[in-house]
Amino acid sequence: MQNNPQQSTNPEVPISTQATLQISEIRDGLVIMKDGSFRAVVACQSINFDLMSSEEREAVEFAYQDFLNSLSFTTQFLIRSQRVDIGPYIDQLINIRRNNDNMLLGVLMDDYINFIDQLSQEANIMDKSFFIVIPYYSSPDAEKIVEQTKNFFLSFSTKQKAPVVTKIDRLTYEKAISEMNNRVSTVISGLNNVGVSAVRLNTKELAELYYNFNNPDTAVREPLVDFSKLATTYVKKGENHA
Known about the structure:
By secondary structure, the chain is α+β, with helices and mostly antiparallel strands. It folds into two domains: 20-83 and 129-227, no CATH class; 85-124. It has nine helices and six strands. It has helices spanning 5-9, 17-20, 54-70, 87-98, 103-122, 140-145, 170-194, 203-214, 230-233, and strands spanning 23-27, 30-33, 38-44, 76-83, 126-136, 198-200. Strands 1, 2, 3, 4, 5 and 6 form a six-stranded antiparallel beta sheet that branches. The longest helix has 25 residues, at 170-194. Residues 155-160 and 228-242 have low confidence and may be disordered.
């Protein structure tokens, strides 16, 4: 499809979301940008810093400082707030209520369901998600050229345009995969030392993240990853498997 030269110069013609996004493709757990650079996203689980003792807080702060100092590449920290859809939760409570024969417990559940339903109508129940975006550029010169678009979640709102790369050779792509795996492992290991559980988003989860990010009003809020399965996803240091 050829671009209409009048479309980009006429301010009255709306620009589609696809035209403004800097994403070219999502595959193999990587976001391939139109400028030829790559991105990986790590989801992080929060910790309750306020409930820690002063010694625990100090240990976390020093571990976090060591983590930042250990990074030899730039990162983007993204904290996203999104409204929670508690409709499925209320439906689950109603099903439990129907299968309950205890009269007293049924009355308490009715009051609780009504309370949750009324609360959701009067207030916006929000949930925070935490992510670390890890970039990779094929060359230092490429990183300097596209530095203004390194915030790949917000780059579609900028008027500056990065150079478009139409083709990436196999050697560059394999090198990007290898380097990105090393960077992701470094980030996850450093976060574990801080006490923060983290997991890399796969291709499907990256697509869901972008859809939710660009459709905040229509997207259903669901967890992108199950942090309870982290132990089966990553092998800890010292474990030897035949």
